[in-house]
Amino acid sequence: MSRTFSIGGIHPHDHKISVNASIEDFPLMDMAYISVSQHLGAPAEPVVAKGDQVKVGQLIAKASGFISANIHSSVSGTVTAVEPLPDISGNLIPHVVIKVEGDDWEESIDRSPEIVKEVKFSPKEIIDIIAKAGIVGLGGAAFPTHIKLSPPPGKKAEYLLINGAECEPYLTSDYRVMLEYPEQMLIGTKIMMMALGVSKAYVGIEENKPKALKLLKKIASKGYKEIKVVSLKKRYPQGGEKQLIDAILHRQVPSMGLPIDVGVVVQNVGTALAVYEAVQKNKPLFDGVVTVTGGCMTEQRNFRLRVGTNFERIMFAIGGFPKDAVKLISGGPMMGKAISRMDAATVKSTSALLLLTEEETRRGEEGNCIRCAKCVEACPMGLEPYLLNRLARAGRTDDLEVNLIQDCIECGCCFYSCPSNIPLLDTIRLAKGQVLKIIRSRPKK
Amino acid sequence: MTTTILFTVVSLSVLGLLLALILYLVAQKFKVEEDPRIDDVEAILPGANCGGCGYAGCRAFAEGCVKADNLDSLYCPVGGNDTMKSVASYLGMEVAEKAPQVAVVRCNGNCDSRPKTNHYDGYSSCAVMASLYAGDTACSFGCLGQGDCVVVCNFDAIKMDPRTGLPEVDQDKCTACGACVKACPKFIIELRNKGPKNRRIFVSCINKDKGGVARKACAVACIGCFKCQKVCPFDAITMSNNLAYIDYNKCKLCRKCVTECPTHAIWEVNFPVRVPKKEEEPVVEQ
Hints:
Chain A is an alpha/beta fold. Chain A has helices at 123-132, 145-148, 173-180, 182-196, 210-223, 241-249, 269-281, 311-317, 358-361, 374-378, 385-394, 397-402, 413-417, 424-441, and strands at 23-25, 31-35, 45-46, 53-54, 59-62, 71-72, 77-86, 92-100, 159-164, 200-206, 227-232, 264-268, 287-293, 301-306, 325-330, 337-338, 352-357.
């Protein structure tokens, strides 16, 4: 029987129109624009300067601070500038700009297609390699993986969960990874289990991906008995950490807590593949699978895309900007971010590029709240979005905190389900930021 | 019949008197001693309850005035110097005169000079828009144009100009309460001295990008060229992060910087129309 999380959730149409497009290598670009802030936490510090020659996989920016990640070059060529350039939101962030010359990889990277099964490192060495390779969570938040794999003292992980739910509509990048790199992904899972010292792992996959479920179950039953592949009901936001833990293990993460508080670490399918490549093939994280999709496109694509490709280049590769498309989203339609600058470039955690037509993006006119409580029913965190919205507009931060606004995961279920088109998520997200700021500014006990 | 009515009236009257007596005694016993001057000071204040003084409302401010040793740190921006003088004379204190202030919008990138690079279709609020991204133009510092400042203004002093897409302050209605300053997520609005005859000069831009980037995003941006600083005879202009700032206490309104600014980012307000000199290009009054 398929499992699922206990409260809330919605069932949007999944629109997985790019499922059958196999992963193809993206043609090499002319210029790479690599941001130094591709992860949660402190931006990395560039270690290259204008005029330097770099190879594919060479370190170009070093992690600074505890929560940070290394950045490696995704191309070979000459650094032409290290300057602030806009990211997808239009904010200026230092980028390393590289003019591409050939495709010269670092010699230490193993580019052979053979699958290396045997892991010959100790847990500590594995975490060091992952930190060096600059791996971040590819599920969206881009939290540095090596920190997630080193639980704080006093806390012990019992389970590792691999998130293959891909509950966002349209996205198929994780699905394609599971189909085309199944064994590599499972080895990556095994490596992370070794690093954490856990003996059990689950891979959660939604029912709408039967091929991936069957394939992974088959491979896991042969060589990876400690990894259990479980089928999940199709429901959004199943891929949220707290929802996935609830669905698979029926454990509830406490308010303001982390998965490690209930002995769980959650990683994404893409992260598992990146870990495999880093540990077994010595390849740092500088590319990822990106779905380029949309109803207005004639051909759906899944690319293996290098970090720092700008969106204009991607549009060029798919044969120009589709006529009907008016909105570009980096990520899925529920939690993705609209791209405001076409000259911005992809980052490590870019999982999809979604092109939507005017019809698909249209917002309905905002009406009055009719107290139907659909948002309350939909909220997977058990919050009351209609109330939070009203309190947020009145600026009542004390009451917002009492009503646990800080637990909002910004999944957008409330906004999706609201028949009056009230922008619940917009107001709640803004107020959540203010409340978190107040909570963090308090002296620690 | 009459006895019933009589009995009812008498018993209710006695009960009423008894309860009134109890209420009176309780009120006397638990009386809250309040300075009677607070009521009088509150009557002097404008009663806008805008919070511009930093207190929760006019009553709280009146309480603050009565309790304070001197009125130096207290100022009612709505009532201005006249009100403060009345308060001071009532309380038997002295008060120094403060220069009246007005809110100025430090962004002049209108639809022509600052072209839109994308279209925002989200919830119409500057705060929400700013939490999502840098804005719908290439300038990440400029006005977002959703009108949060208009919404918070208690005095109807700010309006969006549909021609420019920027807020415009009505200097006669503006009381410098500072509500718009707090509401603007981009920190564009500043309270500045109104100046003699309401004449003032300010840099109408807060773009901290390098000159080239700023200029590309907006034709009227401050590009940090230092020209105004060099020409200023009074050292009123400081440069930091590629942005000029005019100190209104030092500025003597000579208007040299206005003509010098290559992007017309420095504004002069309420000056008479300049007589064009022979060798100089005529400068159009903003």
